[in-house]
């Protein structure tokens, strides 16, 4: 295994920071499903017309947290990073109305759709993480790839 160049280390650190931030973002949403399941159940009913009980909500949160842990350590990177992207994309599709009116204000003058703008930035960051997966050197998958000497999509 050859040592990393300075540029490879910088790229790896940048992607580590990006990955940690994105995992934390999704983890918070998943953890809130455990902390306040009724809130998520109300959202699922409102946006998707789906009724969930506590056990289903906890199971969904558990699966999301498991994916967050895989992504946190960079294990099965294409799967775990892709799953983060799919989870977030699902949320983005539920809030399309805010993209059509990004400057809407409530009666007190507060912007009501600015979270949708944040959603787009996070979605772009997740796409970038996947596109730069070969430069993700400070992950278990990156370490395995360097050790094997070749890129393998499942790492």
Automatic annotation (TrEMBL):
The chain crosses the membrane at residues 12-35, 55-73, 116-133. Keywords: Membrane, Transmembrane, Transmembrane helix. This is DoxX protein. The lineage of its organism: Bacteria, Pseudomonadati, Pseudomonadota, Alphaproteobacteria, Rhodobacterales.
């Amino acid at each position: 295994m050859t040592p990393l160049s300075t540029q490879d280390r910088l790229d790896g650190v940048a992607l580590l920071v990006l990955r940690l931030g994105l995992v934390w973002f999704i983890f918070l949403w998943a953890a809130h499903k455990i902390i306040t399941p009724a809130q998520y159940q109300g959202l699922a009913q409102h946006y998707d017309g789906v009724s969930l009980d506590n056990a289903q909500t906890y199971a969904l949160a558990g699966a999301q947290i498991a994916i967050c842990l895989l992504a946190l350590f960079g294990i099965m990177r294409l799967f775990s990073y892709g799953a983060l992207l799919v989870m977030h994309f699902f949320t983005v599709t539920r809030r399309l109305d805010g993209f059509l009116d990004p400057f809407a204000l409530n009666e007190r003058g507060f912007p009501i759709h600015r979270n949708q703008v944040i959603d787009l930035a996070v979605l772009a960051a997740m796409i970038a993480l996947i596109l730069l997966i070969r430069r993700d050197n400070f992950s278990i998958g990156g370490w395995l790839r360097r050790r094997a000497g070749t890129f393998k999509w499942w790492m």
